[in-house]
Amino acid sequence: MILLKLFLSFFKIGAFSFGGGYAMLPLIQEEVIEKNNWLTSNEFIDILAISQITPGPIAINSATFLGYRISGVLGSIVATIAVVIPSLIIILLIAHFLNKFKESKYVEWTFKGVRPVVIGLIASAGIFVAKDAIIDIKSLFIACGVFYIINFRRVHPILALIIAGIIGGILY
């Protein structure tokens, strides 16, 4: 029963998320923490951190890690497949009909309408993670420093992650 619930939850996440993995985070949070009580907020943030540093898309990584945490190896397989299937179906349909509708104003308007929603979902995920991840002045310092060096000094995000890890190791 838990595997079916896991499949349906991650299928819904995959079906109704637009804009990539970070845009999925509010939906994952709703399903995993608030609706099903599978994890606490802190456990979720830890899994997000692991998902971000692991090679591959964050949506698939987080589904895999969350599925494993909820129901072991079989849970990770079920959650990963469930989150990928909707995108696969949608891409196949788009590829089939794209040539016919690529000049349509309605398609253009739809994509323009989805963009602000994606930004809102990503901002929501960032605020959710920041609420539990910024726990004191030291973590606020690290977060602001990383934001500054990535956005204003154009430091590569991987290098910023390494720097933040070293600073975190020293401060904590």
Automatic annotation (TrEMBL):
Compartments, record wording: Cell membrane
Q: Which Pfam families match?
A: Chromate_transp
A cellular component term (GO) from this record? plasma membrane
| Membrane topology according to the record | Multi-pass membrane protein
Membrane-crossing residues?
Answer: 6-25, 73-97, 117-134, 155-171
Query: Which keywords are on file for this protein?
Result: Cell membrane, Membrane, Transmembrane, Transmembrane helix
Alphabetically, the GO molecular function entries are: chromate transmembrane transporter activity
Which InterPro entries does the UniProt entry name for this protein? Answer: CHR_Transporter (IPR052518), Chromate_transpt (IPR003370)
Q: Which PANTHER family match?
A: CHROMATE TRANSPORT PROTEIN-RELATED, CHROMATE TRANSPORTER
Family as reported in the entry's similarity comment: Belongs to the chromate ion transporter (CHR) (TC 2.A.51) family.
The name of this protein is: Chromate transporter
Q: Which organism is it from?
A: Thermohalobacter berrensis
